[in-house]
Amino acid sequence: MGTAASTELPDRFSKAEVMHLVADQYNESVWSAVADSDGMISRETFLQHISSSSSSSQQQQQLPPIRLIDFDKFKELGQMPRYPDHADITEEVQNLNLFDILVVFISHCWLRGWSGAEGYDGRPHPDNAAHDKYKLLCRWHFKDQTIFSS
Question: Has residue 52 been placed in a domain?
Fold first, then answer.
């Protein structure tokens, strides 16, 4: 995994910014416990809370862990990853130091997600048969960064 300068994130986050990023993990009682007198939280507090609440919330809800893929491994793969097919190139988020990486989350539609989709090969796939989505993502430049793809 590469090293990303944590300066990519602002030094402090407002309640609206945090709620937009992680609404499911922050409610009024959590916010009151971590916010300072100005109604803001520091970057370090935000990252620490996300890291710790991610693992505890997963244990409570029995959700699968969040997995990340190093961008170089993503580019080498040649297609959009699928889990568990490409489990060997993933890292679970709770095993990473979130202060040293930049995580890019990409939300997208699965282009072959149903049996009537063009190029459907018997099971859902996030990209089309020509791997156009993958090719587009590889044109982005995230030097020494980590990318997450769902």
Answer: yes
Helical H runs in the chain?
15-22, 28-34, 43-61, 71-77, 132-138
Domain count of the chain?
2
* Domain interval for residue 118: 67-149
- C-alpha of 113 from chain center: 20
What confidence tens digit (pLDDT) does each residue in 105-119 have?
Answer: 887 888 998 888 999
Using pLDDT thresholds of 50, 70 and 90, give the confidence band for residue 3: very low
The answer on 120 and 90 residing in a single domain is: yes
Whole-number Å distance between alpha carbons of 127 and 14: 36
Chain centroid to CA 145: how far?
A: 12
pTM above 0.85, yes or no: no
Are 84 and 123 a contacting pair, CB within 8 Å?
Answer: no
Phi, psi torsion values for 13, nearest 5 degrees: -120, 140
